[in-house]
Specification:
Helix content: over 70%
Distance between the termini: 113 Å
Order of helices and strands: HHHH
Largest sheet: none
Radius of gyration: 36 Å
Shape: rod-shaped
Structural class: mainly alpha
Length: about 150
């Protein structure tokens, strides 16, 4: 039972570490991992705080009622399965981090490209606007000169 408390606590810490890492990298809180981490850590702390006497009597009653005695090889098999699950969770989380980080980097690069394109487009539009303003000014001056010339004749 002590091993189970330690495993639950470690799993809870792994979940909370994953939440912290994702928040640090992407400013995003992964709620399922947060909830599972809090529940697992809370359960392990709760079980650690209980009196040993009460736990022993409860374990004895459960084992007696359901005949849940495990041999040494079965205990090691359970430990192996638990370690495999934890390792799988860590590997999956690592792969998810890699893909999410790569997607975030692509998004940032695309945003930088778009911003550069918009800046260049703005410069072109400003240049054309200046040319258009000069053309309008020249046309007004030409019309003004024509009116002055007509008034002279």
């Amino acid at each position: 039972m002590k091993f189970l408390r330690v495993v639950l606590f470690v799993l809870g810490l792994v979940c909370l570490a994953e939440v912290a890492y994702v928040y640090y990298i992407l400013s995003f809180v992964d709620s399922p991992y947060l909830i599972v981490g809090i529940i697992l850590c809370s359960l392990s702390v709760y079980w650690a705080k209980k009196k040993k006497r009460r736990l022993k009597s409860l374990e004895h009653d459960l084992f007696k009622k359901y005949k849940m005695y495990l041999s040494d090889s079965e205990e090691w098999l359970v430990i192996l399965v638990a370690c495999t699950i934890v390792l799988g969770l860590i590997i999956k989380s690592y792969r998810d981090y890699k893909t999410m980080t790569a997607e975030a980097k692509k998004k940032i690069e695309r945003q930088k490209k778009d911003e550069a394109y918009v800046r260049k487009l703005k410069e072109v539009i400003d240049q054309k606007n200046e040319l258009l303003q000069q053309a309008i000014k020249l046309k007004r001056n030409k019309l003004k000169n024509l009116r002055i010339n007509r008034n002279l004749f």
